[in-house]
């Protein structure tokens, strides 16, 4: 169990947040308005079980069916909790907005700049891809709602891109204003998710005339086109993995969180645990409400078809509004996390135009320019969808792989450091190493799954572009590193001694 302990004159819990930040070499520029619940809320909202399950449920129906949807959810949730716990231990030791790339630079014995550089760019690309993909999913469900409301409405790729762009810009505007507003919206999002879950599950329990038998959870389906049932079932595990991304958001909000050395790691682990429990309830409700399996699995949006079959068009439309709201909150929180990573990465001089992106608005105390860089980058990823959905999928496919590889790097480096690692107040004690080992192994296995073919026959439209997208990111980052970056970026920088950086505080 995580616990606290005293280390060499250090108060294990009541550590001064500013003193901790100053000891890491940074002045305080951001406002600390996130309490423990707010920090939990951002990761819980980004994970977003309603958004994740509704977006990927159809894939799971064809890749393993109910058996993998339900039991795969349980197994993968446990593995993700291992990853989250190992990350949380690192977050307690290095509670900064830089999060993964900062801790990678600090934990590496050699080549600190390189470890930090590649971790930071994987994290950046993964988060930008996540913002774009979440906005696109929300736009898709908005159009599903419009098609139910007006039968003459025909969704098009152009409309999806335009709605996605509008959503991302509105989320950028929300992030432009104060941290207090973002915190309030994230609190609302938690209750939206929890109350929405109760409403959706309650409707699926009461509404349909018939439900599947208890044994239906063992039903196995392999419609992936591959003859191997084992391979098809393993692909189904991706449903849960797709959902459980973005919990590094609590880590990125450390510099705006009160008692961050404790509340940030708790935010990570609690968000995963609550998402695992509530997501299982939603998954079971959807699985037991499936009517005609072939009809539902073959529909454009299987969860929507389940709602229509069980509750009628009126009921489906009402619940779709809950789903769309959850997706909008998810994108908002994802953009917030992305912005803080850009702010911190720029503060250390790792991005072109760093001087711009780490500046903070004197009025709102938020990194406004970083917000709009994140918005522009996300819109750039969405734009290819104007011509081809396949092109859009290829570009954002690096989202999950990039994020989980970025998660694994500081955990791996912490393992290599061994007894030389100085944990923060929240740590895993003697369980630290075994949990870290399991976390790294799981990330490697799940990343391999993400890059394997996911449908047969393999065509231009069904090809999995994640390996190509990841290779492009790594090649660009590598060329850039050896060409110029290694001479100007040596990893996280220090702005001076604690007393010197304290004098630079802007808040």
TrEMBL record:
Q: Which InterPro entries match?
A: AA/rel_permease1, Amino_acid_permease_CS
Q: Specify the protein's topology with respect to the membrane.
A: Multi-pass membrane protein
Where is this gene product found? Membrane
Q: Record's Gene3D superfamilies?
A: Amino acid/polyamine transporter I
* Residues spanning the membrane: 36-59, 71-94, 115-139, 159-178, 190-208, 228-247, 268-290, 318-337, 370-387, 393-413, 434-453, 465-483
Alphabetically ordered keywords of this record: Membrane, Transmembrane, Transmembrane helix, Transport
Matching entries from PANTHER family are given as: AMINO-ACID PERMEASE BAT1 (PTHR45649), OS04G0435100 PROTEIN (PTHR45649:SF26)
Q: What is this protein called?
A: Amino acid permease
Upper classification of the organism: Bacteria, Bacillati, Actinomycetota, Actinomycetes, Kitasatosporales
